[in-house]
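Hi there. Long-time user, first ticket. I'm pasting a complex I've been working with (about 314 residues overall). I'd like to know whether the download I got is complete or cut off, because the file seemed smaller than I expected. Thanks.
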Amino acid sequence: MNWRCGFTVLWAFALLVGCDQSEGNGVQKIKFDLGRNIVETARASGVPKFSADNIQGRISYSVREIPPSIPARFNRPGYEIVASPLYSFTLYADHDLDPGDLVDYAAVQLDTIESHEVAKALVEQLIAQFVAGKWKRHIPATCPAIAGRSSLLDENGALTVEGNLCLDPGYRLTPEEWEAVMARSQRYRWRGDGVLVDLRVSHTTTSTTGLIYDISLDFRVEAVSNQRDAQRTADRIKEGEAKGWGTAAKIAAGEKADAVRNALLEANALKRGDRVVER
Amino acid sequence: MKFVDDIAKKFNDLMETRRPYMDAELKKIQGWLAA
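Hi, the file is complete. Here it is re-exported in full:
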């Protein structure tokens, strides 16, 4: 793969060849944003060769085994995020949603990290970039709007290790909390300028692989993501009602239970001296 | 094994965006396994 000069996108219907003109020094980073045509985004990224796929109009351009010196950079002014070392980078567009094939999702998969300390430092460095930019913490309705250590705790004030905790990125985990919490899949969430980002972290340990961290960043167009969530819920209700499962009522009951639980968690957080923040 | 993560992400994306197609494909695979 020639990263210095020469950029080729192979796709079922097009072949484009160009040269990176960045000061004659070749590709130094993978640049991307959402909301533009996927071919244009791929061309502008600097990646010399993508593997392209089109499944029923769901288009993807992906590249793996990226040299460790090359980061990915979300390029939107005020919202820049740089991530490395990379394993893979994938762009997605949906032709059914928009015939312009606009990128609605970019998946940045970091390379394997085999140390708690290195993973923690890397994630904290990424969080610092979000804090430094115009991003706002994304707190969905299922989550209590808590800042501080209370974001780790359950109704009894215990650190119960579950997946998908509503972690406060402003709270710096101790090394012990980090190892415990990240044993389950967790995510930090931000939104800004119509983009949602999930920073996903988890680790596993096996006798053959040892300790392995999976860290990834998912950038999504918020409007498209919300539209898909709403459609999924509507489809679920339609199927459930048709089969007599009372799905609509169960969903409503679940939302009410979340609201009650969140109110309790927020009240407990305030008693501990932690904060309840704006959504 | 990192490529398995990529495959899983793509699978999840297709389940979210192309559910009817994926259900049909999974039923086909189920048929092969049952044969």
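A couple of notes from our side: Residues 3 and 248 of chain A are 52 Å apart (CA to CA). The helical segments of chain A are 38-45, 116-132, 175-181, 222-242, 247-271.
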